[in-house]
Amino acid sequence: MKSLLAPGHRGCAGCCDAMAAKFTLMAAGEDCIVVSPTGCLEVMTTPYPESSWGVPFIHSLFENNAAVASGIEAALKSKGEMGNTKIIAMGGDGATLDIGMRSVSGAFERGHDFTFVCIDNEAYMNTGVQRSAATPFAASTTTSPSGKVSFGNIRPKKNMPAIIAAHGSPYVATTSIGYPKDMIRKVKTAVDVEGPTYVHAHSPCTTGWGFDTSKTVEVAKMAVETCLWPLYEMEDGEITKVKKIKNPKPVEDYLKMQRRFKHLFTKEGGDEFIKQIQALADENIVKFGLQ
Amino acid sequence: MATQLIKGNSAVVIGALYAGCDCYFGYPITPASEILHEASQTFPKLGRKFVQAESEEAAINMVYGAASAGHRVLTASSGPGMSLKQEGVSYLAGAELPCVIVDIMRAGPGLGNIGPEQGDYTQVVKGGGHGNYRNIVIAPNSVQEMCDLTMKAFELSTKYRNPVVVLADGVLGQMIEPLKFPETAEELAIDKSWAVCGTKETRENLVTSIFLDFDQLEDFNYKLQEKYETVKENEVDYEEYMMEDASIVLVSYGISSRICRSAVEAARKDGIKVGLFRPITLFPFPENELKALADSGDKTFVSVEMSNGQLIDDVRLATGCTKPVELVNRMGGNLITMDQVMDKIKEIAAREE
């Protein structure tokens, strides 16, 4: 399959954004318009006058990504030009869960016909790894640093798929860049379903999380295999499909791969935090019926 | 006191801590993020409050909240983030609340890039948000001043109950220079005559900017203008360098004034009578001082700025357009070069001969 995201962009080796964008375009095909805010993805693929995008690309900002997508959809519809054109807003976790939350909520509530793909790398990577509402419990970032008294981020991840589902979205899915077929299938389903649809892609960042550039896929898979990132689909608010994990791995296997959790293994008292993280994974197993 | 090599952005946090600032609210943006990082480490360590907001609007309105409670509050951002904050800044000015906002300017418009620029001048110095208000604006040109003028900013914001903006740029934020730490630290003192503290004595205090009656709002606006006049009378600050006999006056602030200083020294070696006039406060702008200079003889003024002729407007206004005012500028994240300034100085000197 021809890639609509040209190689030669400025992404890091092993970049999660590049993979997420590539898979999204593989699913959506040529007839789509992509809106994406400032962030690694935009900076590395579209520094003027270069562009890696083989489809129309509109730059927005974090807080207005879904609003810009709403505007495009409204304009195309007003002239009856929508046809089969897919409108895709791609944003990072900040542009989706934090500063972008209001415009995302507005677009889903109004029911625009578009797909929002959240590339969740669990912190603000482009500005230097500051925490976001998607940063997991106990991860160290530049604004939730681990240290003498701190074990990193003290809050769990915001449950964005549930929030989107609560807006009445007909299709909400979680996926991971470690499972390209899964991601492509889910984005394809999302763009084909009429109305505002949502795909939340867990996307390990080699630079921000601290792992070797060859390990992006391994880390992504491990998040799923430890049940810390469950893969599921929701139709009209109900979970309809779940990826089963027969023999879940202990969360240590995932945590020890990454520098952002290093303090849990080197600092006294880290065990307690690992236990709490294991409890989160165990909760997921029950909540989503992963076994 | 101790002297240490330190980054400009870190010096802001040190200045704030010494000024008795006890609340930091912020959101990441390059090239201002180190202020957020530094605050996330130092504020909690000292028992002060650090909160990372979910957006720039949330950050400035957390500032509004904590300032309403009478605390000394800091936030920092850069171009696009400053634009997002403007509604909150107008409300802070309208409710007469003290706070310090640091703008580490980057190149615009739109996303632009993260290089240094001074393109936020008009937005910040003339107000930025809606309504008849002004920010007090101070422009450091060294790491030392990033600290000292942040302290000064807290003093002025408390004194006038008005937002104060420390207007710096990407170079000042990122560069490392020696910093002599402040001699004394200020203690936070909450003024219970207006602050809302959840106590019996502050129960009747009101933090608001709503005046439904047109005449009442007009009266309030006149009151604000009187305050700005007082600020103009008392708080103008500037620096002159080799100005005694200068027939060419470079007017420049922030990082570009550092380049001008070198240019003045080089041109003086060639026997050209050139000096530097550096506004330290951009509001209040040293207009009387520039007018006096313009009236004192034949002079050519040169606005040296990293923007599209924003400072030059204020130089023209101050001098009443009685003397020629020329422009040397760069944009897009580029620094002004010595050669650029020297070429202009030599061109004017040749014309004068």
TrEMBL record, chain A:
<dbReference type="InterPro" id="IPR029061">
    <property type="entry name" value="THDP-binding"/>
</dbReference>
<dbReference type="GO" id="GO:0016491">
    <property type="term" value="F:oxidoreductase activity"/>
</dbReference>
<comment type="subunit">
    <text>Heterotetramer of one alpha, one beta, one delta and one gamma chain.</text>
</comment>
<dbReference type="GO" id="GO:0006082">
    <property type="term" value="P:organic acid metabolic process"/>
</dbReference>
<keyword id="KW-0560">Oxidoreductase</keyword>
<protein>
    <submittedName>
        <fullName>Pyruvate ferredoxin oxidoreductase, beta subunit</fullName>
    </submittedName>
</protein>
<dbReference type="Pfam" id="PF02775">
    <property type="entry name" value="TPP_enzyme_C"/>
</dbReference>
<keyword id="KW-0670">Pyruvate</keyword>
<dbReference type="GO" id="GO:0044272">
    <property type="term" value="P:sulfur compound biosynthetic process"/>
</dbReference>
<dbReference type="InterPro" id="IPR011766">
    <property type="entry name" value="TPP_enzyme_TPP-bd"/>
</dbReference>
<dbReference type="GO" id="GO:0030976">
    <property type="term" value="F:thiamine pyrophosphate binding"/>
</dbReference>
<feature type="domain" description="Thiamine pyrophosphate enzyme TPP-binding">
    <location>
        <begin position="38"/>
        <end position="200"/>
    </location>
</feature>
<dbReference type="InterPro" id="IPR051479">
    <property type="entry name" value="PorB-like"/>
</dbReference>
UniProtKB/TrEMBL annotation, chain B:
<feature type="domain" description="Pyruvate flavodoxin/ferredoxin oxidoreductase pyrimidine binding">
    <location>
        <begin position="15"/>
        <end position="233"/>
    </location>
</feature>
<dbReference type="InterPro" id="IPR009014">
    <property type="entry name" value="Transketo_C/PFOR_II"/>
</dbReference>
<feature type="domain" description="Pyruvate:ferredoxin oxidoreductase core">
    <location>
        <begin position="246"/>
        <end position="341"/>
    </location>
</feature>
<keyword id="KW-0560">Oxidoreductase</keyword>
<dbReference type="InterPro" id="IPR052368">
    <property type="entry name" value="2-oxoacid_oxidoreductase"/>
</dbReference>
<dbReference type="GO" id="GO:0016491">
    <property type="term" value="F:oxidoreductase activity"/>
</dbReference>
<protein>
    <submittedName>
        <fullName>Ketoisovalerate ferredoxin oxidoreductase, alpha subunit</fullName>
    </submittedName>
</protein>
<dbReference type="Pfam" id="PF17147">
    <property type="entry name" value="PFOR_II"/>
</dbReference>
<dbReference type="InterPro" id="IPR002880">
    <property type="entry name" value="Pyrv_Fd/Flavodoxin_OxRdtase_N"/>
</dbReference>
<dbReference type="InterPro" id="IPR029061">
    <property type="entry name" value="THDP-binding"/>
</dbReference>
<dbReference type="GO" id="GO:0044272">
    <property type="term" value="P:sulfur compound biosynthetic process"/>
</dbReference>
<dbReference type="Pfam" id="PF01855">
    <property type="entry name" value="POR_N"/>
</dbReference>
<dbReference type="GO" id="GO:0006082">
    <property type="term" value="P:organic acid metabolic process"/>
</dbReference>
<dbReference type="InterPro" id="IPR033412">
    <property type="entry name" value="PFOR_II"/>
</dbReference>
